[in-house]
Specification:
mainly alpha, two-stranded antiparallel sheet, 5 helices, 2 strands, 3% strand, membrane, transmembrane helix, transmembrane
């Protein structure tokens, strides 16, 4: 059993976002991430492809924030300490919750996107990987 720390959430959020992003780049179609579309729609005045870097920075900030949020919330709901297996399981569930929130709220409502089913499946996979890595870092107790 290891104690959950905010630093673990920071490290886990960053590493999980890096792994998720690498997977997105390997399996994706080179289209801009939804965060670039967000930047284009609400901050910039160009196409999402003009804001790839801003979109990536925003994506890493989201990932960092989600990692910290999990590390803060888990002790509040009774998970002060966890095993690696429990943390990875919780991380996978969290990845699914993040996927559902991102797919419904961010993509459908905020960005008015309507992705095709294969894109939705990839989006789910990416978020499950994020959750598994985040849970693994938190559960390993290395930071």
């Amino acid at each position: 059993m290891v104690e959950i720390t905010v630093l673990g959430g920071v490290a886990g959020g960053l590493l999980a976002t890096l792994v998720m992003t690498m997977l997105m780049m390997a399996l994706g179609d080179d289209s801009p991430p939804p965060t670039a579309a967000f930047w284009s729609k609400y901050v910039g005045d160009g196409a999402p492809t003009d804001y790839m870097m801003q979109g990536m920075v925003l994506h890493f900030l989201y990932g960092l924030g989600a990692g910290v949020a999990l590390a803060v919330v888990l002790p509040l709901v009774g998970f002060e300490t966890v095993t690696l297996v429990t943390a990875v399981g919780v991380g996978l569930a969290y990845g699914f919750v993040l996927f559902a929130f991102a797919a419904v709220f961010w993509m459908k409502i905020v960005l008015a996107m309507d992705p095709e089913p294969p894109q939705v499946a990839q989006f789910l996979l990416f978020h499950l990987v994020y959750g598994a890595v985040l849970g693994g870092v938190i559960g390993a107790g290395i930071v």
